[in-house]
Specification:
about 375 residues; alpha/beta; binds the ligand O=c1[nH]cnc2cc3nc(NCCN4CCOCC4)[nH]c3cc12
C-alpha cells in the first residue's frame, strides 16, 4: 500500500544539515523546508483560504482538541471532512490534542490509559486516549495527523522524562493500531525526551521501529532557550531516517526557523505570526515593528520597505496603526497577512539558499539585518 505522504530528498545543502525536499500528499506536492500557518479552530485567524493560497501557504494546521470540543468531529465529518468544511484544498495537518490538554485544560491526570482533564469551555470532565485521538483525527480527515503524546516540561527530572517517553512510545503503538485510514492519512510519531540525548535516542528508535511515514520532534519550544533547543536538534535529527519528513512543532520566528533548517528540519508550525499580528506587532526585515505605537501616526511608509506583499504595496503604517487602535478587524487582517507572507517568503529564500549552497551566508544576513545578533 502506498503511504499517504511521500518525502523525497532533492538536495542536501553543502555546508549544513539542511535539506531541500518534496512532500507528496493527497492534496498536493509541496517543497520543504516549509512553514505551516496555524488555523486552530478550522480557520487561520483573520485570513481567508483565498488569501492563504495567494501568499503560498501549502499545509495549514487545525487542532484536534479544539475541534473535538467545538463543533465536534462528527459535524466536521458530516461536512465531508476538514478540507470541505473550511474550503481549503491544499494540505492540512492536525496535532493530536495532547499538547492542548497540557496547555489549556484545567486539572489533568495522566494515566496509562490516557489523559483525564476538565474541558476548558464548560468544565466537564473529559478523557482522551491514544485511540480516541486517532478516531477524532480520522473523522476530521487531515492529510497528516499526530499520535497522542505527552509533551513534558523541559526541565523535569530524568526519571520523569524516561517514564513519559516510554508511555508516549506505547501510546504511539496503540495509535498506529487504531488508525483507520493509513492509505490517505499519514500518522506521524512524536519524538520526546526533553534535553536528554539518550532518551531522545530511545524515543526516536522506538518510533522508527514502528515505521511512521514522518516524525515530529516534540517537547521543544516550551520555555527552553534557543541554544538548548538547537542543542537538542543537533543530536536528535540524526536519529531520524533521512528519507522521512521531520517536523519541529511550535517554532515560528525567523532565527529559529533558519537554525532548525540548518539542523535538518523540514516542517514547522507556530501561532506566533498571527498571534502577535492581533496586537499590532509585525515581523519585518529590520526587526519587529509595533505598528500601533504613536511614532507611526504620520508614517506613510509600508510596514516593511523590503516587502512586496499586497499589504506593503497598498497600505501605510499610519493607516494600519489607525485600524489597530480603532479595533477595526481589517487592521489585524493586514498585519496577519503580512506576517504570514513574511515567514512564507523567508522559507522560499531558505529553499533557494539550499539550492545555492549559501544558507550560512543567508543566516548571517538575516541575523544581522533583522536584529537577532543584538544582545
Ligand atoms: O511535544 C509536542 N507534542 C504535540 N504538540 C506540540 C505542540 C507544541 N507547540 C509548542 N510550542 C508552541 C510555542 N508557542 C510559541 C508562540 O506562542 C504560543 C506558544 N511546542 C510543542 C510541543 C508539542
Amino acid at each position: 500500500m502506498d503511504p499517504a505522504v511521500k518525502y523525497t530528498l532533492i538536495k542536501k545543502e553543502k555546508h549544513t544539515g539542511a535539506r531541500l525536499g518534496l512532500l507528496e500528499t493527497p492534496h498536493g506536492t509541496f517543497e520543504t523546508p516549509m512553514f505551516m500557518p496555524v488555523g486552530t479552530e478550522a480557520t487561520v485567524k483573520n485570513m481567508s483560504p483565498e488569501d492563504l493560497e495567494k501568499i503560498g501557504a501549502s499545509i495549514i494546521l487545525s487542532n484536534t482538541y479544539h475541534l473535538w470540543l467545538r463543533p465536534g468531529e462528527d459535524i466536521v465529518k458530516e461536512a465531508g471532512g476538514l478540507h470541505k468544511f473550511m474550503n481549503w484544498n491544499k494540505g492540512i495537518l492536525t496535532d493530536s490534542g495532547g499538547f492542548q490538554v497540557f496547555s489549556l485544560a484545567k486539572t489533568r491526570d495522566i494515566t496509562e490509559a490516557g489523559v483525564h482533564f476538565r474541558n476548558h469551555l464548560n468544565g466537564r470532565r473529559e478523557f482522551l486516549s491514544p485511540e480516541k485521538a486517532i478516531q477524532i483525527e480520522n473523522d476530521l480527515g487531515p492529510d497528516i495527523m499526530m499520535s497522542l503524546d505527552e509533551c513534558p516540561p523541559f526541565f523535569e527530572s530524568y526519571d520523569y522524562i524516561k517514564d513519559s517517553v516510554e508511555r508516549t512510545s506505547r501510546w504511539a503503538e496503540r495509535g498506529l493500531r487504531a488508525h483507520r485510514n493509513p492509505d490517505w492519512q499519514a500518522l506521524f510519531g512524536i519524538v520526546q525526551g526533553a534535553g536528554f540525548e539518550d532518551l531522545r535516542k530511545q524515543s526516536a528508535q522506538d518510533l522508527v521501529s514502528m515505521d511512521f511515514p514522518g516524525y515530529s520532534i516534540g517537547g521543544l519550544s516550551v520555555g527552553e532557550s534557543k541554544e538548548e533547543m538547537n542543542h537538542v536538534l543537533d543530536f536528535t535529527a540524526p536519529f531520524l531516517p533521512e528519507n522521512k519528513p521531520r517536523y519541529l512543532m511550535g517554532v515560528g520566528s525567523a532565527d529559529s526557523l533558519i537554525d532548525g533548517v540548518i539542523r535538518g528540519i523540514d516542517m514547522f508550525d507556530c501561532v506566533l505570526p498571527t498571534r502577535i499580528a492581533r496586537n499590532g506587532t509585525c515581523m519585518t526585515t529590520k526587526g519587529r515593528l509595533v505598528v500601533k505605537n504613536a511614532k507611526y501616526a504620520r508614517d506613510f511608509r509600508p510596514l516593511d520597505e523590503n516587502c512586496d506583499c499586497y499589504v506593503c504595496r497598498n497600505y501605510s503604517r499610519a493607516y494600519i496603526r489607525h485600524l489597530i487602535n480603532a479595533n477595526e478587524l481589517f487592521g489585524t487582517h493586514l498585519t496577519s497577512y503580512h506576517n504570514l507572507y513574511f515567514l512564507l517568503k523567508l522559507m522560499a529564500d531558505v529553499r533557494q539558499s539550499i539550492r545555492d549552497d549559501n544558507l550560512l551566508e543567508f543566516r548571517e544576513h538575516v541575523f544581522e539585518e533583522y536584529g537577532f545578533n543584538k544582545k
